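Long-time lurker, finally posting.

We've been working with GNAT family N-acetyltransferase (Gelidibacter maritimus) and I want a structural starting point before designing mutants. I don't trust myself to interpret raw outputs, so I'm hoping someone here can both generate the C-alpha cells and explain anything notable. Sequence follows.
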Amino acid sequence: MIYSSEHFSISHLKPKDALQLNKLLVSNTDRFIRFLPKTLAENRTLESTRNYIQRKVTSAEKRKEFVFIIHDNHSKDIIGMIILKNLDWDAKQGEFAYCIGNRFKGKGFMSDAIRATSNYVIKNLGLETLQILSHKTNFPSVNTAIKAGFKWQCTLKDEFKPLNGTPLDMELFEFSSSS
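Top reply, 14 upvotes:
Generated this for you. Predicted structure of GNAT family N-acetyltransferase:
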C-alpha cells in the first residue's frame, strides 16, 4: 500500500484485482470511453483484464508504466485507478491518466489520490515533474489537476484523438517537485 486515508487507500495493481477492476471499467464504460478508450478496450472481459494486469505488472517491473488502484476503505471495492505513463527517466518526468467510478465522483477523492500518488512517485521513483493532460470540457479532470496542485502550462494542439473523432486540443498541467 502506498497511501491510506479515512476514505480510501492506494496500492500497486495486483493480479487479485482482476475481477473488481473489470467491474469498475465495464460498469463505467460510458463515463470513461472518450478519454480512456485503450484501457477500456483492453478490459472488456475478465480474462482480458487478467492479461492487462499481467502486462502492467511486467511493465512496472521494467519501470515503463505503473498502475495504481484506489480502494474504498469501507467496502474494499476498487473505485478508481491512476496510470503513470509516458515516463522519461532522463528528464525525470511522467504523466498521469486517471478515472474514478461514477458513485465516487465529486467527493474530492481523485484530487487527494493524485496528490498522494504524486508524493509517492517523487519520493520513491525519483521523478521531478508530473503532467496531466485534460480536455478543457472535462471539468472534473481539470478540477482534479488544479486541486492536486498542478499548474496549467499550455494548450497542446491536436494532442489526443478520441475513438471515431477528430483530434482534440489538450490542456497541459504540471506539478514540479522543485516548486
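Before you design anything, note these points.
Residues 3-176 form a domain with the Aminopeptidase fold (CATH 3.40.630.30).
The chain has one domain: 3-176.
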